[in-house]
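Please check this chain.
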Amino acid sequence: MSTVPDLLDFDELLSEEERATRDRVRAFVDARVRPHIADWYDRAVFPTELVPELAELGVLGMHLDGYGCGGRSAVEYGLAAMELEAGDSGLRTFVSVQGSLAMSAIHKHGSEEQKQEWLPRMARGEVIGCFGLTEPNSGSDPSSMTTFARRDGDGWVLNGAKRWIGLASIAQVAIIWAQTDEGVRGFLVPTDTAGFVATPIAPKLSMRASIQCDITLTDVRLPADAQLPEARGLRAPFSCLNEARYGIGWGVIGAARDSYATALSYSQTRIQFNQPIGAFQLTQQKLVDMAVEIEKAQLVALRLGRLKDAGRLQPHQISVAKLGNTRAAIAIAREARTILGGNGISGDYSPLRHAANLESVRTYEGTDEVHTLVLGAHITGFSAFRSTASEGAS
């Protein structure tokens, strides 16, 4: 019996090329992630040895065109994100930070020289990037950031702090967003620049097989060409966040699906009262509810992917998937754990790990509350944000 729900023949909605991309990433996760993820998570280790393999797999900046990037479709990128997160949210987060945030910022807002310098090496996994927007006192409201870049002759001097910045301690380049006398601007900061310090955050109860850091910027001196010339205002970082949010809408389905598959398999072999627990009505109800929600989430994600490939995807539509699919995935992971009983708290089973990771996923790239209000503004025509925040959120 298949442990991947396909009640609606979802595969028929995919092209042969899309299925091939999905299956290739799924095989990689099965071979290189599943045998080790419980140990990595337990030891709070991100497997940096996988970075060259992920580059070889073609998933670093896979949806970007040119400069050594994959140029794959939005749907293919989404399917890859789903398979990576079926392994662990931390793995999909690495690909998201590298491709949808750091590389996307350079691709969207950088000069031709910056693109030529950084993107090919990042696609090959030779350079790791990070994306510094969130601050210790500035999360959902990035307009309140205090990191400041002042002009100093022909160059810039940055001072400030960032928090919860993925990959910062292993990155070679950071995209840092800062206030200036002319508004918010983006900067390319090599992490070996004097005054740049990244410190991993520990201990963590979520995303343990991943890296998140505090960054301090103390008189970080940059040349004039460190500025991303096309990045002006909050719309610039938000255009990158929307790329990441799109991937999340797909990725969380993988965590949900893996939780469901684990619970289904367990229910077919765990004997209680002289029969498999999968034969009981209450267990079947749980499994059916999970499978139906996964099918719905896949259809939402695919619709967004088709819109994105057609160049018609709107930010509020991304919020539908980021909010709805993530919320459903958390509920599925938690419910799957109940089928496992006491064994569900063991690292031998994935649902509780996925549930813990998803608490981070539902927070980053816009909390439930932020995406609710983005959709509320679209539905009613009234923004519940301050004017500066709503400009960025839209």
The radius of gyration is 21 Å.
